[in-house]
Each structure stands twice: as C-alpha cells, then as structure tokens.
Design goal:
The structure is a homodimer of 124-residue chains. Helices cover 38% and strands 24% of the residues of chain A. Chain A is of the alpha+beta class. The first copy, chain A, has a single domain, classed as Winged helix-like DNA-binding domain superfamily/Winged helix DNA-binding domain (Arc Repressor Mutant, subunit A), CATH 1.10.10. Chains A and B meet through strand 3, helix 4 and strand 5 of A and strand 3, helix 4 and strand 5 of B. Strand 5 of chain A pairs antiparallel with strand 5 of chain B, so a sheet runs across the interface. Chain B binds a DNA duplex (25 and 25 nucleotides) through helix 1 and helix 3.
DNA sequence: ATTCGTGCAAATGCTTTGCAGCCGT
DNA sequence: ACGGCTGCAAAGCATTTGCACGAAT
C-alpha cells in the first residue's frame, strides 16, 4: 500500500502551487529549504510515482534537455519559448474523440507542444 | 558552407522513405548495411544539422526514452502507442494562428502528441 | 589548400537504481 | 515488526564532443 510521506506531499504541493512547469531540479531547489536533507533522487522517484498515479504529468523535454512536470492535469497545450526557455499554458487543444475515431485507437493522454518566441521576448 | 556528404544524404533519404518515426539508432542500423563504417555519432550529428536546417523534425521522446525523428515536416500530430511503442501520424492539428493571438507569441513549430493504445494492440 | 564531415572513443549530464537505515502504519 | 520511503552515491544510457584523418570544393 502507498504510504503518506512528507516529501511526496510536498513535491505534489509544490507542483500544484506553480505554473512554470518546473524540472525535477527546480522542485528540488525549492523544497530543499524546507527539507534540508531532501535528495534529488527522491524527487525523481516521487515524480515518477505521481505520474503513474496520474496526478501529475510530464509535459516534455525543454530546450535545455530537461523534463518538465505539470501538476495541473486538465487537457491543455504548452508553449516553449525558444529564447528564454519558459513554458506557458495554452487553452486550445485537439478534439480527442475525433482522433480516436480516425485511428481506431484508445487515447489516454494528449499533449500539445508549441515552440517559438514568447510575448515577453518579442517585446525586448 | 554546408557540403554534400553521402552520409548526410543517406540519413535524410532514409528518414524521408519511412513513416515509423525512427530513433537515431534505427536509422543507424538501417544505413549500417550500405555504410559499414558509419558511426552513430555521425547519425546524431547529422540529425541535429538537419533539424536546424528545418528539413526534418524531432517528434519527441518515445516511451523507451529515445528521441524520434520525422522526415515529413507538414504539420501533423503524432500518436504513441503505450503498449507496442509505435508512433503513428494523425492528420488533426491545432489552429496555430489562433494560439499566436492568444499568447501574443510567434510560433515556429507545433507538435501534438497523443498517447494510448493503438488499433493493432486493441485488436489483440 | 582549405574547411567541413567522419569515425572512434571518451565525456557529459539527466535520470535511475542499489542499499542500508528510517518512518508511517 | 513490516514494508514502503528516504538519502546517498554509484550506475545507466541516450546524446554530445574532441581529435586526427578523409573528403568535398
């Protein structure tokens, strides 16, 4: 049976409290303050567990080569800025049931990734 | 200036001839027959060059943790089968200009990834 | 001749894993 | 007490990179 662990709760909480789609290390750095003994391995392990349980999502590898995680699992798309590396949410998403018919497949998850230059970088 | 190289042409040709969105190693294995001395590093290097030139695309990391490449750059979505690991094309895709307005961003590339069980695996 | 591309192998770096001890139940 | 969870460090593994040689212009 899965047990309660302060670290796991904190990792989930951290992920749910932010909208910047952090890497494992970003979560680690953040929580290191409350859990000085926290180890990066534990963060990775719990992110994997949480993904399997379906309470969080991997949203893809950012331009720096690191996986990004999202604590908000409503279907939505992600925009990766090629200049500053930020990851933003996009509300648009694909019509999944239409695609299920096209493929004759069963779709469990849809992730839409866009790449370009974000507004902030364009303004500079 | 970029030069003509048999290896680069072969890699591009291989990628354009197939629709299974191969990994670098799959391309390597295939071309190893015609180029016995071909090295995996060269395949990776050329895939990177071809991506930068925009003639091929990285499609995303498959469930086995390896990057998949696509020689067909028309906008389309990809479906990853969770059971057999295959990658299929989906013709549906997002309305990019609508999203550009939503974000005030400049979109260079859109990739739509779906995950689930493909028809073939469902039939079994 | 020059400069880019290749093959080989070593290095990189994110992520995973083994293990001994700890903590929640 | 049991079994999952942690911290630590070592291992894994896809991808990248340095270097000397070969090939294209």
């Amino acid at each position: 049976m899965q047990r309660f662990s302060k670290q796991r709760e904190a990792i989930l909480g951290n992920l749910r409290s932010r909208y910047d789609h952090p890497t494992a290390e970003m979560v680690y750095m953040d929580l290191k303050q409350s859990f000085p003994n926290l180890s990066l391995g534990t963060v990775y392990r719990n992110l994997a567990v949480l993904c399997e349980s379906g309470v969080i999502l991997k949203v893809g590898v950012s331009l720096d080569g690191k996986e990004r995680y999202d604590g908000h699992i409503q279907p939505h798309a992600h925009f990766f800025c090629e200049r500053c590396g930020a990851v933003y949410d996009v509300t648009e998403h694909l019509d999944v049931s239409k695609i299920e018919k096209e493929l004759g497949a069963e779709i469990h998850y849809a992730s839409n990734t866009l790449r370009g230059i974000c507004r902030e970088c364009l303004d500079k």
